Amino acid sequence: MINIRNFSRTFGSHKGLDNISITVRPGEMVALIGASGSGKSTLLRHISGIMAGDKGGGDIRVMGRIVQEGGSIDRHIRKTRAEIGMIFQQFNLVGRLAVLTNVMLGSLGRVSIFKSLTGRFPRAVQEAALEALRRVGIADKAGQRASTLSGGQQQRAAIARAMVQRAKVLLADEPIASLDPESSRRVMDLLEELNRQDGVTIMVSLHQVDYATRYCQRTIALRAGQVVYDGPSSALTPAVLKDIYGAASEDMFGEELFAETDEPAMAEVIPQPYRPGLCAGAAA
Ligand SMILES: Nc1ncnc2c1ncn2[C@@H]1O[C@H](COP(=O)(O)OP(=O)(O)OP(=O)(O)O)[C@@H](O)[C@H]1O
Ligand SMILES: [Mg+2]
Fold first, then answer.
1. Rounded CA separation 49/80 (Å)
2. Is the residue at 109 inside a domain?
3. 37: Cβ below 6 Å to ligand 1?
């Protein structure tokens, strides 16, 4: 479903992505972890074809179709991108538009731009959008401006948009980074449902390792643009995490992270020095 071969992206003298090779099979839900600046967002942006890699720097295919090769984005990227859902940490929705309209925008790959610009989405799209909002539990917000939704509701609307898009692959970049534990669980539950029931292949970057181990069987970890771990999330031990996040993580990855409890260690398991903007972002 996602195939990345010897892929590199250099920013000046900085190696943002350094010879990455990853294969994700259909139906997988994979966590992407790593310290701030390790390359998670950069990788997801290149998979979706928003950014082009280094000249001669490997290739990326999604659903067997070339997204980019040797530093050039494929000519048919729009068609491929129509089937790739994207969810970001923030700014997923057009704030001044109604929630329902935002969700209907997921159909843009199929509905003509003219119809959508004039606000005339086909009835079937409207119904699909309402059904998707029902599935994510916010159908009662359909007529509200998107900017009036809470952070968690916005993420759920973004998931509804991916449902309307009928995305086969979903790339989610820290979708729960600024949410409280309850909202985070709801969003992750919905991603899990999308993966299990609808068979959507998901790659989700997370900075809370406990969510990775809880929701994703497989975790890929980046450090300085390189894949330093790719394997079962259950095999992520404190020693492995120390290798991923560096020596400063020694004190915070306690054994309790791996204990079988109903209430996981929700506290930020990644220390503040790695997430300088987190507190400010969470409060905003
Ligand atoms: N457009 C760009 N121009 C220059 N440098 C960039 C650009 N995009 C990313 N980088 C650099 O590449 C590295 C990886 O950044 P990236 O945003 O992918 O990290 P991240 O793992 O998503 O971090 P975070 O957890 O903070 O979101 C960083 O050093 C960043 O400064
Ligand atoms: Mg990022």
1. 9
2. yes
3. yes
Please give the residue range of the domain that contains residue 108. 93-166
* Best residue for ligand 1 mutational test, from 11, 54, 278 (most atoms within 8 Å of Cβ): 11
Tens of pLDDT along 89-148?
A: 887 899 999 999 999 988 887 766 656 566 678 888 999 999 999 999 999 999 999 999
CA distance 192 to 185: 10
The total domain count for the chain is: 1
d(CA 113, CA 248): 50
For the segment 248-278, what is each residue's pLDDT rounded down to a tens digit? 555 445 444 444 434 333 333 333 333 332 3
Residue 21 resides in a domain: no
Residue 98 maps to a domain? yes
Tokens encoding 15: 């190696």
> Does 266 fall in a domain?
no
Check: CB of residue 175 under 8 Å from CB of residue 191. Answer: yes
> Is there an atom of ligand 1 within 6 Å of 16 CB?
yes
Give the range among 26-30, 142-146, 230-234, 264-268 with minimum mean pLDDT.
Answer: 264-268
Q: Residue 89 CA: which ligand 1 atom is closest?
A: 27
Give the residue, out of 41, 47, 174, 206, with the most ligand 1 atoms within 8 A of its beta carbon, to mutate for a pocket test. Answer: 41
Q: Ligand 1 within 6 A of 46 CB?
A: no
Residue with tokens 């409207």, as numbered in its chain:
126
